[in-house]
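User: Predict the structure for this protein chain, please.
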Amino acid sequence: MIIFIIGLLLIYFDEFYIIESMFLYINSCMVLCVILIDRVSLMFISFVFLISSMILLYSMEYMNFDLNKNRFLFLMVLFIMFMCLLIMSPNMISILLGWDGLGMVYFCLVIFYQSKKSYSSGFVTVILNRMGYLFIIMSLIWMLNFGSWNFMYIYYYFNINYFFMISLLFL
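Assistant: Here is the predicted structure, written as structure tokens:
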């Protein structure tokens, strides 16, 4: 609820915040750890928190006597953390880390009740996750042409119509 109110305040004052630190420097590309806090990301995160809180409240009662309740709660917190990283990151490296983390945690959640059917469903999610991973890697290679893995750099310094036309090719 607090994040939703902060998002409404950012809409009202038309502000956004960028937290940035250099993580690594490879050849001519800096790998930055960038977190973008704006109205859109806070609105999405508030919905993620709303849905996740309902899942956690339901699972507390549903899994009350389950021995692996703490493992499920840990996996859900990791899922929420990687989802927030994916939402608040305008940097392709952070998006890649968030996507990979989501894929691993999602696989663990699918195979939580360890049976043959859940294992086969888990491997289907791994294969589908790797397809998305392939597109993210292709986007990383494409963004090397611009000298930055940061979406804000491409948005402000290049023709926006060109950027959207190329990004539509990846959808």
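The two ends are 32 Å apart (CA to CA).
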